[in-house]
Amino acid sequence: MPPRLVPLIGFGHLGDDEIRERAAQFRDDLCRRRSVRRFSDRPVPKDVIDACLHAAVSAPSGANRQPWHFVVVTDPETKKRIRREAEAEERAFYRGRAPDDWLEALAPLGTDEHKPFLEEAPYLIVVFAQLHGVDTDGRTVKHYYVQESVGIATGILITAVHRAGLASLTHTPSPMRFLNEILDRPSNERPFLILVVGHPAADVRVPDITRKRFDSVVTLR
């Protein structure tokens, strides 16, 4: 018996002028996005975070298996534990694990093993990639293109946070398995990254970085 096809619905169309205007506005806005490493303790309404997460979980995924889980952390003690474990990994990285060329590449950004933003920001959103799913009967469900799917969802989340007027920072201590224990996540999930979210500190400064030339990263044929 052939599989039942997913029902189809209509999809809207826009005129060229509106498409062009939307694309230009989106480009200009996203080009202003910067990673922030100092956050205010000013509260962020939970419904704003929920809206950003709803956008993220709308992402396309392999066979629509949606192989992700997002844990929203606000509890101060949990954030403190995450910071403690993350900084332990970062100390090992900066003091011996990282190759010299990697440290040289990071030097202009002024980063080090100290990560106070993990406690300062009101929200930590920990993204987990599900290596496989588990159905209601406890049977394994195969997932496809897990890393690609979770990466796309995370990109949409970062964009949604920026469009909401908030600041964010991607943080990836390595290894990150301590997050499974702290956040009580199952073994079929692997930490993908921590997204630090909140309002920037009032006096925050961000690196005045430049991007590679457009024609050096895009080829038209």
What would a concise description of this structure say?
The protein has helices at residues 16-30, 46-56, 76-97, 100-106, 117-120, 146-163, 178-183, 214-217, and strands spanning 68-73, 123-130, 132-134, 140-142, 167-171, 189-198. The chain has 221 residues and is an alpha+beta fold. It has one domain (36-201): NADH Oxidase, CATH 3.40.109.10.
Helix and strand layout, with pairings?
Elements: H1 16-30, H2 46-56, E1 68-73, H3 76-97, H4 100-106, H5 117-120, E2 123-130, E3 132-134, E4 140-142, H6 146-163, E5 167-171, H7 178-183, E6 189-198, H8 214-217
Antiparallel strand pairs: 1-2, 2-6, 3-4, 5-6
Structure description:
The chain has helices spanning 16-30, 46-56, 76-97, 100-106, 117-120, 146-163, 178-183, 214-217, and strands at residues 68-73, 123-130, 132-134, 140-142, 167-171, 189-198. The strands form two sheets. Strands 1-2-6-5 form a four-stranded antiparallel sheet. It has a two-stranded antiparallel sheet with strand order 3-4. Strand 3 and strand 4 form a beta hairpin. Helix content is 39%, strand content 16%. The mean pLDDT is 94. The chain is α+β, with helices and mostly antiparallel strands.
CATH uppermost class: Alpha Beta
The SSE order reads HHEHHHEEEHEHEH
Give me the CATH fold name: NADH Oxidase
For the record, the count of structural domains works out to 1
Count up the helices.
Answer: 8
Which outline best applies? globular
Provide the low-confidence segments as ranges: none
Global mean pLDDT: 94
- Structural classification: alpha+beta
Q: What is the terminal separation in angstroms?
A: 43 Å
What gyration radius follows from the Cα positions, in whole Å? 20 Å
Tell me which CATH architecture applies here: 3-Layer(aba) Sandwich
Q: What is the topology, as strand order, of the major beta sheet? A: 1-2-6-5
The CATH superfamily turns out to be NADH Oxidase
Main sheet overview: 4 strands, antiparallel
Helix content: 25-40%
> What percent of residues are in strands?
15-25%
Q: How many strands appear in the DSSP assignment?
A: 6
